[in-house]
Amino acid sequence: MIVQQYRDTLLMSAELLAYPDPALLERLPQIETAAHGLPRPTRERIERFLGYLRSRDHITLEQDYVRTFDLQGGFPLYLTYPKFGDDRKRGQALADLKQRYRTAGFVPTTHELPDYLPLILEFLGLGEPNATRSLAREYLPTVRQLTKALHRADSPYWVILETAAEAMARLARPSLPSRKEGT
After folding, report:
1. Are residues 150 and 121 in contact, defined by beta-carbon separation less than 8 angstroms?
2. Domain coverage including residue 39
3. What's the gap between Cα 24 and its chain centre?
4. Domain count, the chain
5. Residue pLDDT, tens place only, 91-147
6. Would you say the pTM of this structure is higher than 0.85?
7. Residue 136's CATH number
Protein backbone atom coordinates (compact mmCIF):
# COMPACT_ATOMS: atom_id res chain seq x y z
CA MET A 1 0.00 0.00 0.00
CA ILE A 2 1.05 3.57 -0.50
CA VAL A 3 0.87 6.27 2.18
CA GLN A 4 -2.50 7.59 1.00
CA GLN A 5 -3.99 4.10 1.13
CA TYR A 6 -2.95 3.78 4.79
CA ARG A 7 -4.54 7.13 5.52
CA ASP A 8 -7.73 6.22 3.65
CA THR A 9 -7.90 2.90 5.50
CA LEU A 10 -7.58 4.66 8.87
CA LEU A 11 -10.23 7.23 7.97
CA MET A 12 -12.66 4.53 6.80
CA SER A 13 -11.97 2.49 9.92
CA ALA A 14 -12.63 5.56 12.07
CA GLU A 15 -15.95 6.12 10.36
CA LEU A 16 -16.99 2.46 10.60
CA LEU A 17 -16.08 2.24 14.30
CA ALA A 18 -18.17 5.26 15.21
CA TYR A 19 -21.68 4.88 16.60
CA PRO A 20 -23.84 3.34 13.82
CA ASP A 21 -26.44 6.06 13.47
CA PRO A 22 -28.68 6.42 10.38
CA ALA A 23 -26.26 8.99 8.90
CA LEU A 24 -23.51 6.35 8.82
CA LEU A 25 -25.83 3.89 7.12
CA GLU A 26 -26.63 6.49 4.45
CA ARG A 27 -22.88 6.88 3.75
CA LEU A 28 -22.25 3.16 3.16
CA PRO A 29 -22.33 3.45 -0.66
CA GLN A 30 -19.66 6.19 -0.56
CA ILE A 31 -17.53 4.14 1.84
CA GLU A 32 -17.84 1.10 -0.43
CA THR A 33 -16.85 3.17 -3.46
CA ALA A 34 -13.83 4.57 -1.60
CA ALA A 35 -12.81 1.05 -0.52
CA HIS A 36 -12.42 0.05 -4.19
CA GLY A 37 -9.16 2.05 -4.23
CA LEU A 38 -7.62 -0.11 -1.51
CA PRO A 39 -5.66 -3.35 -1.89
CA ARG A 40 -7.81 -6.45 -2.17
CA PRO A 41 -7.36 -7.87 1.39
CA THR A 42 -8.20 -4.51 2.97
CA ARG A 43 -11.11 -3.93 0.61
CA GLU A 44 -12.51 -7.41 1.26
CA ARG A 45 -12.43 -6.90 5.04
CA ILE A 46 -14.21 -3.55 4.71
CA GLU A 47 -16.79 -5.04 2.33
CA ARG A 48 -17.37 -7.89 4.78
CA PHE A 49 -18.11 -5.40 7.53
CA LEU A 50 -20.33 -3.32 5.24
CA GLY A 51 -22.32 -6.50 4.61
CA TYR A 52 -22.83 -6.87 8.35
CA LEU A 53 -24.04 -3.25 8.61
CA ARG A 54 -26.43 -3.70 5.70
CA SER A 55 -27.87 -6.91 7.12
CA ARG A 56 -29.34 -5.26 10.23
CA ASP A 57 -31.64 -2.36 10.96
CA HIS A 58 -30.13 0.67 12.68
CA ILE A 59 -31.78 -0.05 16.05
CA THR A 60 -30.21 -3.53 16.16
CA LEU A 61 -26.86 -2.09 15.08
CA GLU A 62 -27.00 0.51 17.84
CA GLN A 63 -27.86 -2.14 20.44
CA ASP A 64 -25.03 -4.40 19.22
CA TYR A 65 -22.60 -1.47 19.29
CA VAL A 66 -23.47 -0.52 22.88
CA ARG A 67 -23.36 -4.15 23.99
CA THR A 68 -19.95 -4.59 22.33
CA PHE A 69 -18.22 -1.41 23.40
CA ASP A 70 -19.80 -0.65 26.77
CA LEU A 71 -17.20 0.19 29.41
CA GLN A 72 -18.86 -2.17 31.87
CA GLY A 73 -17.65 -5.57 30.71
CA GLY A 74 -17.53 -4.75 27.02
CA PHE A 75 -14.57 -3.84 24.86
CA PRO A 76 -14.13 -0.08 25.30
CA LEU A 77 -13.04 2.07 22.40
CA TYR A 78 -11.36 4.46 24.86
CA LEU A 79 -7.78 3.28 24.58
CA THR A 80 -6.47 4.60 27.89
CA TYR A 81 -9.26 2.90 29.83
CA PRO A 82 -7.80 -0.65 29.83
CA LYS A 83 -4.54 0.67 31.29
CA PHE A 84 -5.85 3.24 33.79
CA GLY A 85 -9.58 2.61 34.30
CA ASP A 86 -10.98 5.64 36.09
CA ASP A 87 -7.66 6.40 37.82
CA ARG A 88 -6.34 9.98 37.93
CA LYS A 89 -3.44 8.92 35.69
CA ARG A 90 -5.96 8.47 32.89
CA GLY A 91 -6.81 12.17 33.16
CA GLN A 92 -3.16 13.05 32.55
CA ALA A 93 -3.00 10.64 29.60
CA LEU A 94 -6.09 12.32 28.10
CA ALA A 95 -4.59 15.78 28.61
CA ASP A 96 -1.37 14.62 26.93
CA LEU A 97 -3.33 13.32 23.94
CA LYS A 98 -5.21 16.62 23.63
CA GLN A 99 -1.89 18.45 23.64
CA ARG A 100 -0.50 16.18 20.94
CA TYR A 101 -3.53 16.94 18.78
CA ARG A 102 -3.14 20.69 19.36
CA THR A 103 0.58 20.61 18.62
CA ALA A 104 -0.12 18.85 15.31
CA GLY A 105 -2.87 21.35 14.42
CA PHE A 106 -5.55 18.68 14.57
CA VAL A 107 -9.05 19.84 15.43
CA PRO A 108 -11.28 16.91 16.44
CA THR A 109 -14.60 16.59 14.63
CA THR A 110 -16.28 15.01 17.65
CA HIS A 111 -16.81 15.83 21.29
CA GLU A 112 -15.55 12.41 22.39
CA LEU A 113 -12.63 12.00 24.76
CA PRO A 114 -9.26 12.22 22.98
CA ASP A 115 -8.55 8.49 23.50
CA TYR A 116 -11.66 7.41 21.57
CA LEU A 117 -10.33 5.03 18.93
CA PRO A 118 -12.23 6.51 15.96
CA LEU A 119 -10.80 9.94 16.89
CA ILE A 120 -7.26 8.55 17.16
CA LEU A 121 -7.70 6.84 13.77
CA GLU A 122 -8.93 10.09 12.26
CA PHE A 123 -5.86 11.89 13.59
CA LEU A 124 -3.58 9.16 12.24
CA GLY A 125 -5.31 9.35 8.86
CA LEU A 126 -5.08 13.14 8.57
CA GLY A 127 -1.85 13.96 10.38
CA GLU A 128 1.67 14.14 9.06
CA PRO A 129 3.49 10.79 9.35
CA ASN A 130 6.19 12.24 11.60
CA ALA A 131 3.53 13.62 13.97
CA THR A 132 1.49 10.41 14.03
CA ARG A 133 4.16 7.67 14.02
CA SER A 134 4.76 7.63 17.78
CA LEU A 135 1.02 7.69 18.55
CA ALA A 136 0.44 4.75 16.19
CA ARG A 137 3.28 2.89 17.89
CA GLU A 138 1.98 3.71 21.37
CA TYR A 139 -1.61 2.54 20.83
CA LEU A 140 -1.05 -0.31 18.38
CA PRO A 141 -0.66 -2.96 21.13
CA THR A 142 -3.99 -1.92 22.69
CA VAL A 143 -5.73 -2.04 19.31
CA ARG A 144 -4.26 -5.48 18.62
CA GLN A 145 -5.38 -6.69 22.04
CA LEU A 146 -8.88 -5.35 21.41
CA THR A 147 -8.91 -6.99 17.96
CA LYS A 148 -8.05 -10.38 19.44
CA ALA A 149 -10.68 -10.05 22.16
CA LEU A 150 -13.38 -9.11 19.64
CA HIS A 151 -12.33 -11.96 17.36
CA ARG A 152 -12.62 -14.43 20.25
CA ALA A 153 -16.05 -12.97 21.06
CA ASP A 154 -17.05 -13.46 17.40
CA SER A 155 -17.88 -9.76 17.01
CA PRO A 156 -18.06 -8.45 13.45
CA TYR A 157 -16.10 -5.39 14.61
CA TRP A 158 -12.87 -7.37 14.84
CA VAL A 159 -12.54 -7.15 11.05
CA ILE A 160 -12.41 -3.35 11.10
CA LEU A 161 -10.06 -3.31 14.08
CA GLU A 162 -7.74 -5.72 12.27
CA THR A 163 -7.82 -3.42 9.25
CA ALA A 164 -7.02 -0.40 11.42
CA ALA A 165 -4.24 -2.25 13.26
CA GLU A 166 -2.60 -3.23 9.98
CA ALA A 167 -2.58 0.39 8.79
CA MET A 168 -1.36 1.60 12.21
CA ALA A 169 1.50 -0.91 12.09
CA ARG A 170 2.56 0.47 8.72
CA LEU A 171 2.40 4.05 9.99
CA ALA A 172 4.45 3.10 13.04
CA ARG A 173 7.37 2.10 10.82
CA PRO A 174 10.26 4.55 10.59
CA SER A 175 9.62 5.23 6.92
CA LEU A 176 6.63 4.68 4.67
CA PRO A 177 6.70 3.58 1.05
CA SER A 178 5.95 6.38 -1.34
CA ARG A 179 5.04 4.09 -4.21
CA LYS A 180 3.02 0.92 -4.53
CA GLU A 181 4.34 -2.26 -2.96
CA GLY A 182 2.66 -5.30 -4.51
CA THR A 183 -1.08 -4.73 -3.92
Report:
1. no
2. 3-172
3. 15
4. 1
5. 999 999 999 999 999 998 888 999 999 999 999 999 888 889 999 999 999 999 999
6. yes
7. 1.10.3480
